[in-house]
Amino acid sequence: MNFRSISALLILLICLVSSVNSQNKPNIIILFADDLGYGDLSCYGAQDVQTPNIDVLAKEGLRFTDFQVASSVCSPSRAALLTGRYPMRNGFPVAQGKIGKHKDYGLHPDEITMADVLLQHGYATLAIGKWHLGFNKGAQPIDHGFQHFYGLQSNWHTSHPDLDDVYSDNQVVKENVAFETLIGDYTQKAIEYIEENKKNPFFLYLAYHSVHSPIKPSKEFIGTSKGSLYGDYVQELDHYVGQLTKALTKHKLDKNTIVVFLSDNGPAICHFGGSAGPLNGGKYTTMEGGFRIPAIIKWEGKFATGVNDTFLSSMDLLPTLTSLAGAEIPKDRVIDGKNITSILKTGKGVSPHKFVYYYNGINLQAIRKGQWKLHLPRTSDDQPFWSKNKNEKPFNGSNLKNISCRGLIALGRPLLFDLDHDMGELTDISHNHPEIVEELLKEAERIRKELGDIDVIGTDQRIPPFENIQEKI
Q1: Is the dihedral of CA 162, 167, 173, 174 positive or negative?
Q2: Catalytic annotation, pick one of 74, 102, 353, 375
Q3: Burial category of 2 from C-beta neighbours within 10 Å (exposed 0-12, middle 13-18, buried 19 and up)
Q4: Which residue from 15, 103, 296, 442 has the highest number of Cβ atoms inside 10 Å of its Cβ?
Q5: Are 360 and 387 in contact (CB under 8 A)?
Q6: Which residues lie across from 260 on neighbouring strands?
Q7: Which residue, 109, 125, 255, is CA-closest to 203?
Q8: What share of the chain is helix, strand, coil (3-state, %, to 5)?
Q9: Of 102, 108, 132, 209, catalytic
Q10: Is the peptide bond before 214 cis (omega within 30 degrees of 0)?
Q11: CA 433, CA 410: separation in Å to the nearest integer?
């Protein structure tokens, strides 16, 4: 065999090894619903809404009962999922608006996203749908590891020319789009991407606008649920999730694709409806109804199936999914998420989080350790703009059964809940466990020094590029 033949054989072997390695990397799809509540799906107990496609995903995968996001509003939750870091740490603690004050507010160029890591390890990467992490140059999806982007820069709205325009990468490709057309358009783009990349590993981040306002399901779904227009809207979301999962089956990708379905925060029950099920509060609050969300993870033949009650976080997705792709998490920064691969494979295990912190904007409002959750004293002035109420009197009772949908805006003293026996946060038991209260108060003081709070700048806090962070103007 001559030198040329040997060289050709070596090249062929290298290509074959590379191909095998690529095929061994799982495709990753994150389906990120918007404002979908813990009680909005039939697999989570909804009675007036039927979600058969998401229910099948839950039956074939792991359905979680104690899966948390890192914020109860859109932008910070998205930043935390993509970076694996608390919003106070990644510099995105409040929801972004199309306002002058936020003109330089975007996901910081130094932040490393899941897409950044996967792109460096041979993945094709695409973001579809709602971005909401910056309008400015340097804060777009293609600046943060996504090779391509197709969708809206923020929420759909007609109040500003840019907010109802569809972008492809950084260019507007559709102007003044009808809201009802987006979900089908996004799903079709996702299916096309799956078809194009079925022979190489891909990461698809599909952030639906559903079921965020406006509550405008397509006309063919109006009246299909036993509930309200909101229920119709949820059922439309389920339909398109089904379209995408059927595409995976069609292309025989089920066994090599990890599918993650979750919501960015709880339902906007004060404004548009939705259900947090047995949980108290919803969007804009640090009650469980704002942070605990429906979540399903499936990898056929590799992950366990059934129901899992382990306390986990959306921030765990970055270290877990990148590890499964053969990559390492960044070593030059704190990653708050933990690798939960063993829990996904066995369906068992304890939470990797000793403490978890609940911020509303830059205000630390609660802290959790295992079954114990302590709500901290606060005033209306401490709140971000979406929760302020100057006439709010501090809550000083012990039973929260009739608390406002806006949660605990003002609180005169710490409240302690045992979430194992009171997931609805209805009865304060702080007087029965003073030692737990003391421990969590000490931890609150420690984390304030690290992540910050009202009038406290943390040692590892990234400060947004504007003043009066909690104010809209």
Answers
A1: negative
A2: 74
A3: exposed
A4: 296
A5: yes
A6: 30, 297
A7: 125
A8: 35, 20, 50
A9: 132
A10: yes
A11: 22
Name the pairing type of β-strands 171-174 and 306-308. unpaired
In the numeric block, which tokens belong to residue 372?
């114990």
SS3 sequence, 26-65? CEEEEEEECCCCCCCCHHHCCCCCCCHHHHHHHHHCEEEC
Of 232-241, 381-390, 439-448, which range is least confident?
Answer: 381-390
Preceding peptide of 211 cis, ω within 30°:
yes
Residue 271 annotated in active site: no
Rounded to whole angstroms, how far apart are CA atoms 249 and 225? Answer: 27
Q: How far is C-alpha 183 from the chain's CA centre?
A: 18
How far apart are the C-alpha atoms of 104 and 106, rounded to whole Å? 6
Instruction: Please say whether the beta carbons of 69 and 76 come within 8 A.
Output: no
Yes or no: say if 283 and 72 are a contact pair by the CB < 8 Å rule: yes
pLDDT at position 23, please? 55
Beta bridge partners of residue 290, listed in sequence order: none
Please state, in angstroms and rounded to a whole number, the distance separating the CA atoms of residues 472 and 74.
Answer: 15
Dihedral sign for Cα atoms in the order 362, 368, 374, 375: positive
Both tokens assigned to 297: 């993870």
63-119: pLDDT as tens digits: 999 999 999 999 999 999 999 999 999 999 999 999 999 999 999 999 999 999 999
User: What confidence tens digit (pLDDT) does each residue in 204-216 have?
Assistant: 999 999 999 999 9
473 vs 229, residue with greater confidence: 229
74 assigned to active site? yes
Scanning the structure block, which residue is given the tokens 């609150």?
A: 444
Question: Which H or E run includes 8?
Answer: helix 3-24
Give the DSSP H or E segment for 79: helix 74-83
Q: Residue with structure tokens 């998490």?
A: 329
Q: Which residues contact 461 (CB under 8 A, 6 or more apart)?
A: 88, 89, 450, 451, 452
DSSP letters, 251-295, are TT-GGGEEEEEEESS---TTTT----TTSS--TTSSSHHHHB--E
CB 312 within 8 A of CB 68: yes
What is the Cα–Cα distance from 399 to 173, expressed in whole angstroms?
Answer: 53
How far is it, in rounded angstroms, from Cα 32 to Cα 211?
Answer: 11
Whole-model pTM above 0.70? yes
Strand (E) or helix (H) holding 447: helix 434-451
